[in-house]
Protein 1
Amino acid sequence: MRIERLDLIAYGAFDGHSLDGLGRAGVHVVHGPNEAGKSTALSAFDQLLYGIDHQSRYAFRHGNRTQLGARLSAAGGVALEIIRRKKRKDDLVDGNGDPLGEGALAPFLGGVDRKTFTTEFALNSDELRKGGRLLASGEGDMAQLLAAARSGLLLNAVLARIKTRQDGLFLRRGRIPAINASLDRLRDVRKRVSEAMLRPDQYWDAEQSAAEAKRRLAETEADLRAAQRLRGARHHLLENLPALARCRELEEQAEQISAQGPVAPDDIRTQLPELINQRSARTGTRSTHAGLLEEIERQLSETGRDDALLPHAAAIKRLAEGIAAILDELERRDSASGEVADKRVRAASRLRTVHADATLADEGLYRIPEALRGEGQELRDRGRTLWDNLAHARDAVKRCRDKHERLGKELSALPAGEDVSQLQNAYASIPGRLEEKLNDTEDTWKKRDRRFRQARDRLGLPELPPEGVLKLRLPDQERATGAERDFRDLEQLLRDRAGELDDAQCRLATCRRDLDQLVTDDAPPTLEELQAQRAERDDLFARFVDDPGMLDSLSEAVRRADGTADQMLRHAERVNRRADLSREIADLEAAVPGHRAAVDEVLAEQESDQRRWEALWEGYPAPAPDIGQASKVLDAFDQLQTVARELQDNRIELEGLRKRLNAHATRLRHLLRLGEDAPTVTDTARDSVVFAEMVETARGRLDEHQRIAQDRAAVQRDLASAETDLEEAESAQADAENALAVHDGRWQRFLSSAGLAADRGFDVALTDLEDLSLVAADVDAAEALERELQQSEQRISEFGTLLEETFGACGRDVPASVTGWHDAIDTLARNLQEQRDGAQQRKTLLNNRANLVAQVAEADAELRGVESRLLDFSARLNLSSITELEAAAERATTFREKSTALANIRQTLPAGGELDRLREEAKKTSTEELADELAELDERIERLETARTAWLERRAERRRVLDDLDGSAAAARAEAEIAQICAGLAEDAEEYLRLEAARIAIQTCMEEYRNSDQEPVLARAAAMFAQLTCGDYAGLEMSDEERPSIRAKTSTGTLLTPAALSEGTCDQLYLALRLATLERHAVAGNALPIVVDDLLMSFDEERTEAALRVLDSMADRFQVIVFTHHKHVVEGAVKELPGGRCHIHKLPS
């Protein structure tokens, strides 16, 4: 499959950019500077073929409008136009926008999924360096290297992660991993369980000691609480003593204030200060306003009443505003008279330059319509264009005539063509890649022959040809499977019988050993001894009620009686156990011979099956295999016969290809006249080269003939085109001449309309019209100035009349000259403003006087009201003056302060009977006595707390001793911890086993891939490695180790490990392996484009060119696209690759 065109319609920073021409044979180099979007274009390949990611980082600009397009082609000429859109549904459409299912791409993808494409067909510099480092590290054997080359290092990374996780779970001599740590904890906990046991002989004393500690602790805590309560009460009294004293003091001060005289009520106390302040303020206001009234009367008497100019204020304002404009008009009037004369003289002079005898009275000569001037400009521009067109047409006729003559000479000089139809038919009939297919077929035959010999040798067969192998007849798979199944059944039966025999013998030995241990000479206690000890115990117990001092003797008697009973019970159990063991030994001695006979019977049946098995393989030319290996041998033999049949088919195909090659070679020799002696193909490599040279010779002759024919046809086409161009140029010249003649007639009519001479040219005539327009402008300006002079004279006359009338009404004299008007008018305006200011000042003083009179009256009324309220307050308290009233209010304020302070103190003290009790106790004691009592209480509490702490420690210690004597709780906790540890161990062990199974499975797959693909991949990689290193290394070989690793062979024959190679050479070795693994896709017919990015960064110039040649050698089987931002890669590709095999595509900056 090839991508002939990639459209970056709306993707990343691209908008409407296309990479066209990607389907041509050879290497395609996509070049662009940094930030040109190289990585974006590279990512577009897998996004196009397999869908745009919903969270694509290349949708930052276009969002949901992100889309890609392409034209795909496959073998057989199948082509498809597609567009991939960023949508969850119908994201793939054709060129018309109709939805396509993903199945439409199946013929092009050939079953290759996205992961395979990105890990095998795409390669960048980072992955190349990782592969090179894997080789140099020496950690990868051939299986890992092949898997890495095929999967893009993914499997090796997975193996590394599995190993890291396994090491975190378990190490053989480790202590930190999870499983190791859990095992250590399990041993410690089990040790604690074995140590936890009950000791009853000390339990009674420990329990009594713990109870005593608990009782003494309770007594100490009760005494401590009583002492703390007493200390709290005495401390509470000490805190309240100052408040109680202050309370008595405030009560005495309140009684003294009441005895001094009347105390003003709250309403008089709160209102009196405000009333006193109001009386003082009103008295001051009245005094202040009286002084202000006297000052206003004085100012009114001093202010004059001259207002004669006020009735003429409007006329004076007009004079003041208009005097400046009138003086300017007087000045302009003097200068405008001379300007009018100058404009008329200039206009008359310009008019005579166009019409020598004309005057300004002849308005028809210089007032030209604007449309006529526009027509003149248009005719001038059109005339110039027509003259230019005529000159260009004459030049074109000359050029076309010269070209026609030159092409005629070239056609005469070209050679005539020859008939090459037979050679062309013979060349077209040669199948594509015939010699390459012959080489591939012969290589395949050699590989299959080598596989045939290896498979035959693995089976241990003699030197048999493929036909001999196909004639051999072996037992069928069903009989072999049945024999193998019977053999395994017998093996299992033998294991079962032998196991039963071993179990019986082991059990018999165990029973005999246990019976020997139970046999002893010690006589058991008698019943009479037990009865005597119990009687002694009962007698001591009866006497213990009267004499508690016999407790020790009673305990000893109980112990002896219980020990004797236990000893008699254990003896009875041993007797029963000896009887059971004796019976079991007799049964086992009888059963052992039967088990042994069953084992011998199974062994005899196995020998019989072995003889029958060897009889089945009488026709096999090698020793009969073991029964357990029969299926594998038969599978290997089937594979050997399959290879033998393939080898025969391959030989037939090879002979057919050789015959076809000889036939085509003979035909080409005849048509190319190279001689008729065409030897039969025997040496495929040499004859393929000769045939390829003949094909190239034929293609060269056909290309030469085609080039000559194309050149002659091209010249003939150019000659016909030149004749047509000459005719068109001559016609254009005639049209230009006709158009110029028509224009001359229009120009003459224009000159007549403008009154100009008929010999005037374009520029002269338009200059005359411009001068006439200036004449008209000067005449119009002079007439406008004359009208303005008349209007100015009228305004000056009106202003003089207004001046005389206003000055006369105001009793002022009009200045004799115009120059004195401005000063006289300014003086009159200032006098008017002074009269206005005096009138305004009188009005303000009168208003202020009226306001002050009203404020004085208001203050008198308020002062009378305040004094009336003060007299009422004095009457309520039977006081004779305001001074006494103020003293009563002061006593009320002091009394209120004392009362408030007393209330605040009482809020801090207890209420009711508690307050009375505190007052009584306060009378009986002092602060010093309370301090001494509290000090004694603190010492007592400290002693009690020390005692409580000691008894707490003793109780805890005695409880701990008691708990240690009873180990059941600790044992239970330890057993629970053991269960928890075992559960965790089971989970970790299960995970470790899963990881181990995954590791073995991956390594097995890698090893199988190495066994099947090592030889073809290694051969192809060796050839590529030699090319990539420019012959410094001759190839690759495998070591003789159990897990073979790769070795690089230098040109001198020295074998080097990858670790001995340079960094760049390791990269080139990994690249050779990676490219070699892709050949299987070409064989399978699912070759997708190879896309590489900055792959040659660590290559020097010579090896860069070699790598480009290697990629070019694959470009006929794969589409090869190289992304780079290095110019030397582009230059090397252009320089090194053949013509037509290097295609450069530039990305925009």
Protein 2
Amino acid sequence: MDTNALKKFAQSARNLLIAQVTARLDMVLAEGAAARREHPAAIARLEAAASSNRGQVIEQAAYTWFNRFTALRFMDVTGLTNPRVVSPADGATRPEILAEAMAGNLPDRARPEIAEYLNGTRPAHDGQAEAYRLLLIHACNEWHHAMPYMFERADMLDRAEDYTELLIPDDLLSPDSILARLREVMTEDACEDVEIIGWLYQFYISEKKDQVFAGLKKNQKITAENIPAATQLFTPHWIVRYLVENSLGRLWLLNRPGSGLAAKMDYYIAPEEPETDFLRIQRAEDICICDPACGSGHMLTYAFDLLYEIYAEEGHDAAEIPGLILRHNLTGIEIDDRAGALAAFALSMKAAAKLGRRRFLRMEEKPDVVVLQDVRFPPAEMQDVAAVVGKDLFTDELRETLGQFEQAKNFGSLIVPKLRDPIETLRLVAARDFGSDLLLKEVQARVVAVLSMAEALSPKYHVVVANPPYMGGKGMNGKLGDFVKANYPDSKSDLFAVFMERALGLCAKRGLMAMINMQSWMFLSSYEKLRGTLLSNATILSMAHIGERGFDTIGGVVVSTTSFVIKNAHDEGRRGEFIRLVEGDSEREKVLQLREAIQNPNCGWFYRASADDIAKIPSSPIVYWQTERFYELFRTLNGLSQIAKPRQGATTSDNDRFLRSWTEVSCQRIGFGHANRASAAAAAQKWFPYNKGGEFRRWYGNQEFIINFKNDGEEIKEFHEELNKTRPGGRLKNQDHYFSQSVSWSKISTGSFAVRYFPEGFIFDVAGSAVFFESREDFSYFTGLLNSAVVTSVLQALSPTLNFEAEHLSKIPVLPAKNRAAAASHASGIVERIINCSKADWDDYETSWDFTTLPLLSPDHRAGTLEASYANLRAHWQDMTDEMHRLEEENNRIFIDAYGLQDELTPEVPIDEITLTCNPAYRYGVKNTEEDREARLREDTVAEFLHYAVGCMFGRYSLDAPGLILANEGEGIEEYLARVPEPSFAPDRDNVIPVLDADWFVDDIVTRARDFLRVTFGDAKFRENLAFVEAALGKDLRKWFTKDFFDYHVRRYKKRPIYWMFSSPKGSFNALIYMHRYRPDTVSVVLNQYVREFIHKLEVERAQLEKLALDPAATPAQQTKAQKETTTVIKQIAELTEWERDVVYPMAQQKIAIDLDDGVKRNYPLFAGALKPIKGLEAADD
């Protein structure tokens, strides 16, 4: 089945039908329309409905005809219709029912107007179209008795108040009609299974779903009427089979051990050990199955298939089986009328496929699909209700039950009827006869409706199977949210979890619940109580843990899911069967893995675990994939919090205001190295290092941010005090640990867990939480432990979602002091060496505040040429990576041995997890080839060389002194010369470096870069060195500086550039300045010495080109080239003249002052129009 084609059709069909129904509505309501004379009652009702909610009328008519068209096409293909209603006979083009009518073969009970339209006696613009419209309506009415839920009568002669007929689309016969398109996608192959109807429904409402979720992003709650669109998700067939076979199929096999049903169930997981305490079933007719959120009925239709096999195996007559199944076994509950109708239709088609047309039409049984409806009994009606029910039945429980369904469309199956046994009350109330008392009859009908819904929601089912709605608490409308909080406090975070509770409540004792939902209930702390209840009161029998990419139709990693079967009784010690499919990259791969695991439990992703095992892990995450030794660690060892409590840090609530990248502000304003709050508070500085988590990196690094904590955080504390008056906001947690050395980790990871050593001097963030130890030895030991394979495996159990909270680290099992002494003696030295190596790597790059000089220029690696120097440096980097790799694996070996996990874990570390920036496998990943990675590393190293050169041009760095030179606000050449009196490479004097297409100025950036190359590696081999640079970059030096440098700089400094690019609108003029050297007259320097000077140079160039173009001594080619270049120069002059006049000159007049404390995000926009725009600069800081 081509679901992409179905999706494309369904979405376009919805838009087409809405357009055609809208046109039809306007036509029939027009003054003087024929419909007004022929159907006045229907028009009156239509006008009333349209005036109340025109959009709803159109939407309802559109989906009604969509459902009917798809149903009729399916019935045509499967041979249920005769003649075919929307399909032509073989070899024909017109729908068969129309072709037969044109041949004089009208259907029985057909309206006379059909023949009149066809023979021309009744005037019409298109007689065939009008006749076919009536034939369609006739066919729908004929199928009403067999399937009233799909084909409500739309005949004006029978229901004068119904306006559906009036809104049938006009174009049904053209090659571009909705029916023609329908036939193209609903081919005979596609209609082999009725599940196509469910797919079409999901795709039909998909645009509505997108609209609902777009509203959700704007904090618009999901209303009751939008819940179906927001939560419908058609379940892939393989998941349905797993769920039904391991619930219904398992239950039947327990009751009929000799059954051959298992051979027909490809997704059935046979239990490891015999089961004796199970739900007893005497007959197939006794089995009750419910889908409490049935949608279009996919679960129910496969349950029908399996039940058919059960009945056949029991010896029932094939002609009786479909009726028996519909009468006894299947109940669907739904809040959406459309989905409910499609579910009932799908079950009917299952029956029809087994019975054939004639027997199906004679079958009296109808699918038991209960579509919940809002029913209200005002207090004034209670006397009438009592009269209908009778005083003997009108109990408090009944009264309360009658009031529970006012929000049935909103709360759905989550309603738990107070009346415990509504079936008997329903029977008695329904049997009462109120004669001609229409008022009491109407009340009686509503009471019966409520009792029928209550009966469906009673706990009687042997099997409950569902793909429930997924909706987080933030999306719930107010009434639904309040209802869930009041009735399902342990699962209130999401509707899928609430449905887990409710589904178990619908099960009989020892009944089975089969469900697919989000995996988050297995791990998140918000579901800890739910897990505890399940593990204590129920039993997980099996699970296919799907993870991401289980639904190809919704793509990517939108949802991470798990499917499972739970028994509504606790079996002490029973081990469930778990199949781990999370590694599969596609739905198809997961299907193959599931099939293989069922056939071969030794495949490597088949596990067995009991509730007792899982309960040994704190908070009881459903971590089924660990070994007995692993579970025992949690049972026998104390958590890390007994040694040192992991702690959360600060939450600013306004990062834009209180945080900066350290490179943005004056270096002298940053207080480095303070050992405690008192020392920092006494200092004059405003900014202090801030640990904010960051990317995956182990051992050392991610030291990039600073926080405004002047006067012990005076400003941020005042801000929090004011903020918290209106809503809970920022908090400065654990202040007594600020500035202490720590071991820290990033709260959110995209891969393995990693900790980093932080020396004294840092405040830490909630996303860079930390743990603190008393001694240096403990720091080394626990840094090694936390970065080991042991803790990685532990945290995969405690937080498989890769969101690492302090509470997770608190629970890491820690060996007693006497047991960790030996490991500590071995690990401490290794860890110290690793940290030193990681620190050296971090400090080799400009983004470290401890950066001193470029490694490529270090005497340790420098050779006669740049290429030879790079070769030396690359060899050194490889040695660092190899040594780090060896040490990390030795660290793993120490802790694996200490914890006795030699059979569970290996010490190997993937090369891409050796987190050194100089390691290309970590820096670029391992998806590309080693050759590609080496080429990128060489290119980036050369780019870093040129970037450092620009830093030397501006005086931020010097070849003659280590570290930062000019790094404070307003500093200039005078301050530079005070520190470096005789520089070998002098900085630019006016802080403006032009970046142009040629060397128009003496301080042109390419000219200066070439000078830098000569100074650093000599003049003798300049050409060779330049060739190496350009080969590594893949382009010439000027092209790289003009096209790539600024983007590279912005990317490297994470959209907080310190070198700013003045750039004209079309890029004819570009010049860099260094923001720390900026002064209020800097724009004037750019204007007078560069922009105006450049315009003057262009004027001279223009005159020379014009002269050349007219020079009779020039060749025709030279003249043509000169003419083209003249045109270009004229445009450049016009661009720059306008830019100078409208932007740069007025800005220079303003003499704008900046405060580096305000950061790039606030200062850069002050020069809007003059500076090159930075995409994403305005985005809020995380």
Protein 3
Amino acid sequence: MNGNNKVHDQKHTNGTPTVVFSSGDEDNGEVSKEQNGASAIPQNQSHLSPPEMKKKGSFASLTHKLGFGHGSASQLSKSSSKANNLSASYHEHMWDIHETIMHNKDSNIDKENPERSKGLSSQKARELLEQNGPNKLPAPKEISDLKLFIKQFMNMLWILLGVAAALTLVSFLADTSDMTGLWVTIILYVMIVVMCFISFYQEREARKVVRGFQNLLPTSCSVIRDGNETVIGAEDLVVGDVVKLKSGTKVPADIRVLHCTQLKLETSSITGESEPVEYQYEPVAENVNIFDARNVAFNGSYCVDGDGIGVVIKTATDTIIGQIANMTTDQPNKKSRLEHQIKIFVKFLTVLAITVGLSVFVIGGIVHKWDNIVLLLATSFAVCSVSMIPEGMPATVTSILTLVARRLARKNVYLKRLDIVEALGSANIIASDKTGTLTKNEMTVTDVWYSNEYVTDISEHRTGHHRTMTVKTISRVEAPLSDLLVAMTICNTASFDESIDSKKGNNNKEGKVRINMPTLDENGELSKETVQNTVNRYNTVGRGVQDTYGRGVQNTIQRRRKRIEQIQGKQAVGAPSEVALIKYAEQLINVHDFRKRYNVVFEIPFNSRRKFHLIIAKMHEIGNGQYQYLLIMKGAPEILIQKCSTILTTDEETELTENKRNEFQKAYNTYGEHGRRVIGFVHKHFNAPASIKFNVDEGNFPLKDLVFVGICAIMDPPRDETERAIRECQEAGIKVFMVTGDHHITATAIAKQIGLIGKEGHDWDVVKGEDIPKLTDQQWDKLIAKRSLVFARTTPEQKLRIVEECQKRKQIIAMTGDGVNDAPALKKSDIGVGMGSGSDVAKQAADIVLTDDNFSSMVGSVREGRLMFDNIKKLMVYVLCHTFPELWAIIIHFCFGMPIGTTSLIILSIDLGTEILPGIAMCKEPLEGDVMKRPPRKEGKILIGKALLAYVYGYNAHIQVVGCFLAYCTVFWSHNINISDLWMSALGSWKHGGALFTSNGRTFSVEEQLYINRQACSAWQVGIVFGQVFNVFCARTLRQSIFTQGLFSNMAMNIAIIAEIIMLLVFVYAPGVNSFLGGAPVPWQSWAVVAVVGMFVFSYNEVRKYCIRRWPNNKIVRAFKF
């Protein structure tokens, strides 16, 4: 547009605007924010019908339903939050110019013209800087990398294994002829170091929260000191400095604006406002929140338009962003539930290993008559520790978590901490932001109204209120729609980014529709020819047969949809609501070419006081030096209609009668009550001299007796998949709370559309942010017990309060957020979920980042979390079942004097070799069908409960012990040795330098004894590993039959089992390998007996699972359920 003169507010020196357009009834902050003339709801609340005044969402009805009177509703509950009330520490927004000067005497502020202020003296600024410190956020308190690395070795599991390795080294030093002890020591220490390096790297990457705040702050600013404007480092700024704010710069501190001209600040990262906010300098009432005052510019905000001057009132950690940083970094580091439960299990293993080791040492000492007590002590404790602790479990769990993280990454979910997905799987509350998460974050024109016609959007977006109205879709351009398109296009500062579009090429590829440039008539409106061509394009029926007609209609629909998709994908620059208008108009006309026909010569930008945007376009000459001009206004409909005397209909301009006003009011209320942002359009043709210079003060253009054209409704539509995702959460027993900064009517309307709340019922409520501090503990109890909640107009501390109240009631809460203001709540919540398009601070404070900002992605993460919990439990069932068979191989030697059943290297070959791949493949197990149909796990339910311990260390484990012992016996039977002869025989035989051994009349030399013993160790190894092959099929399901799940449905598991058997064959039969491990080839009978026992274990588990499915509530059956 060619704007020759753009009018700003002209201010008197006393601060009073020359022209102020009254807005009628004031909303007192109760309506949603307005941008570019957009009014979310009617400001006059009397417009709402009586039923709407009693909506379930109102706080009055909330307290009534909860059974509390006004007295209790006004009581302040004691918050457990350490956060200060951000707004309560500010009073400057209520000061007028005189009070501001009184509190900043050293700033030498000129009350008549603040731009002539002299500012602080350099000497005073230096004194204040020395007294209060620099204007910067303190560096995060972090331990050094060396201390962090050393900290990793304090894990109880590594300490226990380290002690085991040391004892193994002692046993090697006692008998250096056997190198086994040395190899075990080396392997254990290498494994400990590697695992500590991994955990060190992960924790080091997670410590970056405060660094994101530093990136928001400017490095320099323009100040006035000693009467001169100068540029200084932002760190040198002090309270009382007079600062100039200019377009394209960041606000360097919290600044009370003294004077401004069209100042607009982008504050989305701090306040959550989605559009640039227009600022002013007048004081506000005492009940107005600092975030709604619009006269205090916050540190880190970005100046997008206009300029201003102000005085610094807060610096460093006293600013809003500094307080938010403190609220975030003061939160203690979270420990995941998985990490906590594994710690509990490790403590259990530690106690168990020490107890068993001590018992074996005492009994072994008695049996072996305390011969070589040092070697006995070292060996008993070391071997028991190695056998009791599944060394491969940490690596396997980490591998599973890594694979799950990669799987989620492909679904646009990035895990900053691998173990956090388990916590998400146990979440019973998801508190989600609205904009961009539940909705598309794309302002879209959903409906237009003109001449009492309710018209749906061309792009066929769903609108929930159309069931009660007679509506039509746009199929042709006719008046007054043509006038409405002109107003949307010309009275609009947004534009398409042609540089981006040109890079894509201008060729008309297949499937795209060319829209011819519409022809204007002599009045500058769409000509009848254009209208008729549009009608013909969409409505003409061909002369051919019926099937040709059908194909033509279908092709037209497809072309229209492709055209709409093409337009929606175009890049545009401007306020979101204005972008929505030009994208709507572009569906019928070429906006870029259309604007060339209108020569805009005068413009009054929109602001929050006048609530309209005005342009005047010079049309064509009519003779005698006169030209016809077109005035277009766009803004708050309730303001614009007061300036009109006529309304445009399909036929002509008609008088704006009371009946017509009621029709408009009905449409306005209907859209507003359904959460739409409503924009009105008026125009006026008038004649004036060609050389006229339009001026607000002179009033030389019409501002009354205008023509009302129509209104349009704009909203950020819900994502297509949101409703299904919320329904899935509710089926899974997860409560979904919407926490948004939007107005409660807008939030309620979206909540209804996405199925979060219903039209009827008492299992939901809407709470305004201003009422959150007034809620008592009893009210919080009843609120959090509800299925769904909508929190509207929330501030950072209120979001934090919501998280704390949920956690006080033992709820596991996942909180989403994208702004700096969300960081404290993200850090405090059990699972902080940041958005990929959000601020760096939010992403760094979060545990999970949704790269597509989509709520359904988080629901998918819940599913993965629950699946992962089940699969880790299955992993525990699989891995832990072999620890007792390993232990019994030691017990029979130390306590019963029989030849030893295994070696330390064989144990490590199992724990770090054959067990790893099947354990990792367990993460590939699919859902058992009911994972998202069952409620979240109860608080306190642990990963490894009593029933699971009874299974892995009790009946199932000891069945496997029987299999291992029988395989062990087959070796001696193959050599015609009676098992009874083995009792206490190891006291003198079956070792280097031992005595001869005789059984069934045959005497065995020491070399023969050692070989047979190595065979027995390998047989026990076959018993464990081959037995685990059967056990893994048992562990793959917790309740379903493996045949229902699919015996070979997990391809990764099939490959892992084959690899496990191949490794076992190598360990047992490969020369050199078996001797290194301390084994030897075994007879086929060993395999056969293990297979029989394995089939028994498999059959028993199928019966157990059947009983769990058949009698789930039976007390005896529940004892076998884990």
